[in-house]
Design brief:
This protein has 425 residues and is an alpha+beta fold. It is 37% helix and 35% strand. α3 (134-166) packs antiparallel against α4.
Length: 425
């Protein structure tokens, strides 16, 4: 009986040991699978290390083709448009008739030119009248009178001298006659001198007036020609081979002398590409940079150089010379500028950068020992950033190049949360 009892006890102990082993084995298996399942549910994060390199700036925008030379054709006076012989966009030859205009019955410009002609004719009449000098005529009369008087006094003196020699006249009367003769001679001399001076001045004045008269006659002829032209049809002619860019009137419109009838582009003078630079890029773009102008309609790209940058009204505009002439002017095209920065020691992907009220930060990966091995968790690290492009950002302070950073993640993460790391490919 005792032996049977001992055998039962041994069996119970073996069963109990087996149960204990099975229990702990089951617990270990459940813990392992629980850990595995939990790890699979953790956010997956992609790790990467900072690297050195350069930033690549890609600047895009739109600009316009601008012709270097555009001429405006004006009518010489306000006229009515009789016929416009061209259309916008049409290529024209030098000397080709662009439009025909004719004068209106009530043309204020014609009236104005007629008034100017009348004023010139009046000035000519006044100038011709001024050539007749009445002063010289008066001086000539005075000289003639003085000479007549001198002749009479000379005759009187000669008579008295003969009478004095015969003893029939007193010497005092002769002296008086001689005195009167000398006075008359001096007076006649002064009047002749005055007449001579007046004639010399008159000659100078006549020479000047002659030139003025010739000038007035020429102005009258020119003015008369203007009036005749205003009365006739006017032809607007293209000054060179070009392209009609704009036409501002239609047939039967009244074309004003101070507003152009049309614009003609001179393609031989060339074109420029002009585009505004955004404020964010104005310090990146500089003269000498390469610029690609994308011509979709031609399915090609023009690679040019930025010739100059103009600043006006707090806006910067880049100018690039275009040697091709197959443009109209005003076309709008997209441009692209790609420029490399100087080398930087520490660059990270911009997607790895976050920002909160305390500043810019990145997430690092840390590890610690857990119940079933290593566990990985997130640590937030604040950094000082510099410049950036579309992909990378410069880190100025707060990061070692040997430190692994979290580049991307499958679920939202936060500081101290557990994660499942994987290396960036």
């Amino acid at each position: 009986m005792d032996g049977y009892s001992n055998i039962n006890n041994e069996k119970k102990q073996k069963i109990f040991k087996r149960v204990i082993v099975i229990f702990f084995s089951t617990m270990l298996i459940l813990t392992f699978f629980s850990k595995t399942i939990q790890n699979l549910s953790l956010p997956t994060v992609i790790l990467s290390q900072p690297h050195s390199g350069v930033l690549t700036y890609e600047i895009t925008g739109f600009g316009n083709i601008v012709p270097k030379e555009v001429i405006k054709l004006y009518p010489s006076s306000t006229k009515k448009v009789k016929d416009i012989n061209v259309e916008v966009g049409e290529k024209v030859k030098k000397g080709q008739i662009i439009a025909i205009l004719h004068n209106e019955v009530s043309n204020p410009k014609l009236t104005e030119e007629k008034i100017k002609l009348k004023a010139l004719e009046t000035n000519l009449e006044k100038t011709l009248l001024n050539t007749k000098n009445t002063e010289i005529e008066n001086l000539e009369l005075e000289v003639a009178k003085a000479m007549k008087k001198l002749e009479n006094l000379q005759r009187n003196f000669d008579q008295k001298k003969q009478l004095v020699e015969l003893g029939a006249e007193a010497t005092d009367n002769l002296n008086e006659a001689q005195y009167d003769l000398e006075i008359a001679e001096e007076e006649c001399k002064q009047k002749k001198l005055k007449l001579k001076t007046a004639k010399e001045n008159q000659q100078i004045s006549l020479n000047r007036q002659k030139k003025e008269i010739e000038s007035l006659k020429y102005d009258i002829q020119t003015q008369q020609l203007k009036i005749n032209q205003l009365k006739e049809e006017e032809l607007l002619i293209s000054p060179y081979d070009g392209i009609v860019k704009e036409i501002y009137y239609q047939n039967s419109d009244l074309a004003f002398y101070d507003k152009p009838l049309c614009l003609i582009v001179n393609p031989k003078k060339g074109f420029v590409f002009s585009a505004n630079i955004e404020n964010d890029n104005e310090n990146i773009v500089s003269v000498g940079d390469s610029i690609s102008i994308i011509l979709k309609y031609k399915n090609k790209t023009m690679d040019k150089t930025i010739e100059k940058i103009i600043t006006k009204d707090n806006c910067k505009k880049l100018i690039s010379e275009i040697d091709e002439v197959d443009f109209f002017g005003g076309e709008k095209y997209k441009y692209r500028i790609i420029k490399k920065s100087k080398p930087f020691d520490t660059l990270i992907p911009s997607t790895a950068l976050g920002k909160d009220n305390s500043g810019n930060f990145i997430f690092l990966i840390n590890e610690r020992e857990g119940a079933l091995g290593k566990e990985y968790y997130v640590k937030k690290e604040y950094v000082v950033i510099g410049d950036n492009d579309d992909q990378n950002t410069v880190i100025l302070k707060g990061l070692d190049n040997r430190t692994c950073i979290i580049y991307d993640f499958s679920k939202p993460i936060y500081e101290d949360c557990r994660v499942r790391p994987t290396q960036r490919k």
